[in-house]
Amino acid sequence: MSITLVIFCLTLAVFYAKLSILITNLFVIMDIEKQLESLGLKPQETKIYLECLEKGESKLAQICRDLKIPRSTAKYSLEKLQRQGLLNIVQKNKSQLYVALPPKHIISTLKSQKEKIDEQIETIQNSLPQLNHIYSSSSHEPRVRYFKDKEIRNIYEEILDSPIDETLFIGEMDKTAEVIGLNYLKSWMKRRSELRIKTRAIRVEKGELKDSMVNSDSKKYLRSVRLAPANFESPNHIIIYGNNVATISTTKENFGFVITSNEYAITMKNLFKEVWRNSSPF
Question: Which phi and psi angles does 104 have, rounded to 5°?
Answer without folding.
Answer: -65, -20
